[in-house]
C-alpha cells in the first residue's frame, strides 16, 4: 500500500492542476444532485420485532382509524391552550377558543374526516352521570311504553371530556383539566393530511403556527407540539467554532500560517461532499435528522485530522528528501497508509451500527461512514495536489517561538520528548495514575438511565417545550406519554369478552403508577377493544417503563383464562422498547467492532499485544466518558446543565462506534511512529520515546481539534446535539490524553520486546501492508542506485 500511495502522492503533487479541477467537478456534481433530489430528513423510531408492534397490528386489523391516530409516523399536532386570566369557560376565552377551532376546520392541511371540536364545549354536552345518560336515552325514545332502549355505555374515547369522567370511565378528562381544578388548560388533537413527516414542509408548519398565533392574539396562551411542530436542528455555528479552533491549533502545530489553511480546505471539501451525498440519499430512503449532524461532526474533524497528519509528515520529509515532490510521495505513502487504516477503523465502527438492527442507527452509521470515507479520500488524493499548489509558500511565514521546537527535528527537545522520558523512567507510576483517574471518573456510569428525546428535552423557549409543560401542569406529566392497550378478542368466546375486558381493566387499574384509565372501546366487529392509560409519571421515567413491563407480564395469565391477547403501544411503550433494545445491543456491538478493529490493527502493527492493549484502553476511556456524561447531564453535577434528563438512548451506541474509531486513529498515528523506530533497530524504550517525540504533537493537535468540533455542538439548544457533543468531546479527551498518550506508552515500556511479538506462523500468513514504509524505502534506495549507475555507464 505504501508504494501505491507514494506513487499517487508524487503524481498528484506534479499534476496538481488536473487533480484540483477534478475534485471541484466532483463537488459541483454532488451538490447539483443534492439540490435536485434532496428530500426532508425524517425520524422514525419503529424497529422490527418491538413488543409495541403487536398493538399496532391489532389496531390496523380491527380499528384502522385508531391505528392511524396512534401511529408514531402519523402527522399530528396538539394545540395546548391555556387561559391566562380566568378559565376557558369564561365568555371571552370561549369566544376565542371557538374561533380557533373554526379556523382549524377551515385549514386545508387538516384532515377533515372528523371535525375538530371545542374540548370545553364537548365537556358541557356530556351527561353528568350514567343516570343522566339513561334519562337522555329514555327521552329520545319517545312516549311509546316498553320501547326505551338500554342505557348506552359512555364512549370514553369520544366523550373523554366529561366532567364526571372518573365516575363514568375510571379516570379524569384527558383533554380538559380535571373537575377538581378550574378548567384553565385544554388540548386539541389535530390530524393533518400529510402522509408522513417527510412530506411536512416549512409552509405547512407556518400555516399551523398561524392558527396558534391568531389564538394568542385573541388573548389565549397557545403552544404546539407533535410532528407538525418539529423542526430540524441547525449545526452551522458549531462547525464554524470547530473550524476556528482548528485553524489556531494547526498554526501552533505547524509553526506557520499558510500550512494551517490546507487541512481546513480538505475538511470543508470532505464535509461538503459527504453532506451532498447524504442529502441525495434522502431521495432513496429515510434519513434521520441527526444524520447530517453526526456526519458533519465526524467529517470535519477527521478531514482536518488526517490532513494534519500528512502535512506534518510532509514537513519532516522536506528536510530529508531530495525534492518537494519526493517528500509529498513519501508523506502520502507513510502517513497516508496510516490514514487509510485509521479511517477504515472508523468506517468499520460506524457501519457496525447496522448490526443493532435499528433503522435510524443504521442510517446514521452509514452517514458517518460516508463522511469518514470522504475524509480519507480528501486527505490522500486532494491533499498532495494542494501541497503542490502552495509550493514553497506552504510553511511561510514561520512563527519563531513555535517553529524553534519542531517535533520532526530529531535534535530538538520538545515537551513531547520530555514527557515521554518521564514515562520511560517510571512507567508503573504513570500507568497506575492514569488507570485510577479513569476508574474514578467511570463510577457514576453505574447510574446510567436511557431515554428518547421528547417535549421535555426541547429548548425551554420552544413551543414544543412550553406545550409539554402546560400539559403537565394541567393533567400531570403522564398525559405527555399516554399508553394505548389494544386487545385482540378474536380467540375469546363471545360470551366471555365482557368478562375478559373487565378482568384486564381491573388488572391495569390495580397498578400504582396508573393515573387515569378509560373503559374499553370495542371495535365494530366486536373482536377487539382499546384502553387508554395515562401513567402518573413521564414517558422516560423508570416508573412508567416498569408499568409497561408489569402490564405485559400479566398477559399470560389472562390469555390462559380468556384466550385474549393484547399489546401496548404509544410513545411511552415505544420508548421503553427502544431503550431495552439499545441497552441489550451495547455488549454485542462492542464485541463485533472490537474484533474487526483488532484484525485491522493486527495487520498494521504485526503484533498481538499492541492491538489488545489498544482495545482494553478504549474500555477504560469509554467507562470514564459514560461516567462524566451521567454525572453532568443526568445528575446535574456542577450546575453545568440546568435541565437534567436521562441519557439519549442511542448515544451509547453512537459514542462507542465513533470514539472507538477515533481511538484507533490516535493509536495508529502515535504507535506507528514508535514501531517505525523499532523496526529501524532501536530498543523498545528508545523507540517509544522517539516515536512519542514525532507523533505526540500531531495526536494532541488532532485531539484538540476533535474536542473543539464536538464541543461546539454543546452550544446547540437541542439536548440531543448538546449531550452528544459533550460525550464525544469527553471521549476524545480521555482516550487521546490519558489512554493513548499515557497508558499505552507506559505499557509498551513495561512489555519491552514482547509488545512487538507475533507468532512466526501468523506473521507468514498475514499480508504485509507496510504502513511504516519499509518497501517504500527499498524502492527509493533502488532508484538512487540506478541513478548512480546510469551516468557511470554513459
TrEMBL record:
Ranges for region Disordered: 128-159
Entry keyword Transcription: no
A Pfam family the protein falls into: MMPL
Taxonomy, superkingdom: Bacteria
A GO cellular component annotation in the UniProt record: plasma membrane
Cited InterPro entries: MMPL_dom, Mycobact_MmpL
Keywords associated with the record: Cell membrane, Membrane, Transmembrane, Transmembrane helix
Membrane topology annotation: Multi-pass membrane protein
Signal peptide positions (record): none
Location of this chain's protein in the cell: Cell membrane
Biased composition (Low complexity): 128-145
Main location, first listed in the record: membrane
SUPFAM superfamilies, A to Z: Multidrug efflux transporter AcrB transmembrane domain
Record-annotated membrane-spanning stretches: 268-284, 290-311, 332-360, 366-390, 428-450, 586-605, 612-633, 653-674, 695-715, 727-751
Gene3D superfamilies the UniProt entry points to: Multidrug efflux transporter AcrB transmembrane domain
Residue stretches making up the Membrane transport protein MMPL domain: 48-399, 520-758
Entry protein name: MMPL family transporter
Naturally occurring in which organism (per UniProt): Nocardia speluncae
Amino acid at each position: 500500500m505504501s508504494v501505491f500511495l507514494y506513487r499517487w502522492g508524487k503524481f498528484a503533487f506534479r499534476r496538481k492542476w488536473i487533480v484540483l479541477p477534478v475534485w471541484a467537478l466532483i463537488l459541483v456534481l454532488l451538490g447539483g444532485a443534492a439540490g435536485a433530489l434532496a428530500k426532508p430528513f425524517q425520524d422514525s423510531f419503529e424497529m422490527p420485532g418491538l413488543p409495541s408492534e403487536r398493538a399496532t397490528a391489532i389496531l390496523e386489523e380491527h380499528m384502522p382509524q385508531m391505528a392511524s391516530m396512534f401511529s408514531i409516523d402519523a402527522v399530528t399536532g396538539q394545540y395546548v391552550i391555556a387561559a391566562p386570566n380566568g378559565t376557558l369557560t369564561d365568555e371571552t376565552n370561549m369566544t376565542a377558543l371557538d374561533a380557533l377551532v373554526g379556523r382549524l376546520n377551515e385549514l386545508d392541511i387538516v384532515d377533515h374526516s372528523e371535525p375538530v371540536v371545542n374540548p370545553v364545549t364537548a365537556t358541557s354536552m356530556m351527561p353528568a352521570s350514567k343516570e343522566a345518560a339513561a334519562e337522555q336515552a329514555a327521552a329520545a325514545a319517545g312516549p311509546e311504553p316498553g320501547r326505551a332502549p338500554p342505557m348506552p355505555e359512555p364512549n370514553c374515547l369520544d366523550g373523554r371530556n366529561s366532567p364526571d369522567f372518573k365516575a363514568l370511565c375510571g379516570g379524569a378528562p384527558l383533554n380538559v383539566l380535571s373537575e377538581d381544578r378550574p378548567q384553565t388548560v385544554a388540548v386539541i388533537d389535530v390530524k393533518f393530511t400529510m402522509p408522513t413527516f417527510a412530506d411536512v414542509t416549512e409552509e405547512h408548519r407556518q400555516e399551523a403556527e398561524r392558527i396558534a398565533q391568531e389564538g394568542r392574539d385573541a388573548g389565549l396562551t397557545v403552544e404546539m407540539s407533535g410532528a407538525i411542530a418539529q423542526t430540524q436542528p441547525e449545526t452551522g455555528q458549531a462547525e464554524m467554532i470547530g473550524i476556528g479552533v482548528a485553524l489556531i491549533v494547526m498554526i501552533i502545530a505547524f509553526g506557520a500560517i499558510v500550512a494551517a489553511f490546507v487541512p481546513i480546505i480538505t475538511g470543508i471539501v470532505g464535509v461538503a461532499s459527504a453532506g451532498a451525498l447524504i442529502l441525495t440519499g434522502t431521495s432513496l430512503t429515510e434519513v434521520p435528522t441527526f444524520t447530517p449532524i453526526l456526519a458533519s461532526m465526524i467529517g470535519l474533524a477527521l478531514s482536518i485530522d488526517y490532513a494534519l497528519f500528512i502535512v506534518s509528515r510532509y514537513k519532516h520529509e522536506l528536510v530529508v528528501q531530495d525534492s518537494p515532490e519526493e517528500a509529498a510521495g513519501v508523506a502520502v505513502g507513510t502517513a497516508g497508509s496510516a490514514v487509510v487504516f485509521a479511517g477504515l477503523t472508523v468506517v468499520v465502527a460506524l457501519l457496525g451500527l447496522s448490526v443493532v438492527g435499528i433503522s435510524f442507527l443504521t442510517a446514521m452509521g452509514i452517514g458517518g461512514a460516508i463522511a469518514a470515507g470522504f475524509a480519507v479520500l480528501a486527505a490522500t488524493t486532494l491533499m498532495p495536489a494542494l501541497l503542490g499548489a502552495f509550493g514553497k509558500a506552504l510553511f511561510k511565514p514561520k512563527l519563531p517561538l513555535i517553529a524553534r521546537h519542531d517535533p520532526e527535528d530529531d535534535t530538538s527537545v520538545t515537551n513531547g520528548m520530555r514527557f515521554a522520558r518521564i514515562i520511560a523512567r517510571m512507567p508503573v507510576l504513570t500507568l497506575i495514575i492514569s488507570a485510577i483517574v479513569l476508574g474514578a471518573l467511570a463510577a457514576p456510569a453505574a447510574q446510567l438511565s436511557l431515554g428518547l428525546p421528547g417535549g421535555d428535552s426541547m429548548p425551554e423557549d420552544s413551543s414544543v417545550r412550553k406545550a409539554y409543560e402546560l400539559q403537565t401542569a394541567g393533567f400531570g406529566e403522564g398525559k405527555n406519554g399516554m399508553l394505548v392497550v389494544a386487545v385482540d378478542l378474536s380467540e375469546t368466546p363471545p360470551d366471555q369478552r365482557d368478562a375478559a375486558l373487565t378482568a384486564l381493566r381491573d388488572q391495569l387499574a390495580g397498578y400504582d403508577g396508573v393515573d387515569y384509565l378509560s373503559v374499553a372501546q370495542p371495535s365494530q366487529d366486536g373482536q377487539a377493544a382499546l384502553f387508554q392509560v395515562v401513567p402518573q409519571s413521564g414517558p422516560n421515567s423508570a416508573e412508567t417503563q416498569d408499568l409497561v413491563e408489569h402490564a405485559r407480564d400479566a398477559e399470560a395469565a389472562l390469555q390462559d383464562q380468556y384466550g385474549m391477547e393484547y399489546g401496548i403501544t404509544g410513545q411511552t411503550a415505544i420508548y421503553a422498547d427502544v431503550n431495552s433494545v439499545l441497552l441489550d445491543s451495547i455488549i454485542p456491538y462492542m464485541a463485533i467492532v472490537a474484533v474487526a478493529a483488532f484484525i485491522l490493527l493486527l495487520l498494521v502493527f504485526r503484533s498481538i499485544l499492541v492491538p489488545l492493549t489498544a482495545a482494553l484502553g478504549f474500555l477504560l476511556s469509554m467507562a470514564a466518558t459514560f461516567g462524566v456524561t451521567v454525572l453532568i447531564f443526568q445528575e446535574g453535577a456542577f450546575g453545568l446543565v440546568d435541565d437534567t434528563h436521562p441519557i439519549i438512548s442511542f448515544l451509547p451506541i453512537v459514542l462507542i462506534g465513533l470514539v472507538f474509531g477515533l481511538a484507533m486513529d490516535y493509536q495508529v498515528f502515535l504507535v506507528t511512529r514508535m514501531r517505525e523506530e523499532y523496526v529501524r533497530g532501536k530498543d523498545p524504550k528508545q523507540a517509544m520515546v522517539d516515536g512519542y517525540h514525532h507523533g505526540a504533537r500531531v495526536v494532541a493537535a488532532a485531539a484538540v481539534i476533535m474536542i473543539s468540533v464536538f464541543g461546539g455542538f454543546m452550544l446547540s439548544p437541542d439536548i440531543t446535539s448538546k449531550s452528544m457533543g459533550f460525550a464525544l468531546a469527553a471521549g476524545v479527551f480521555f482516550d487521546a490524553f490519558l489512554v493513548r498518550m499515557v497508558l499505552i506508552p507506559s505499557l509498551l515500556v513495561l512489555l519491552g520486546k514482547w509488545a512487538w511479538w507475533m507468532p512466526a506462523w501468523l506473521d507468514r500468513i498475514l499480508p504485509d501492508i507496510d504502513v511504516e514504509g519499509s518497501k517504500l524505502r527499498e524502492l527509493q534506495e533502488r532508484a538512487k542506485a540506478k541513478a548512480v549507475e546510469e551516468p557511470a555507464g554513459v
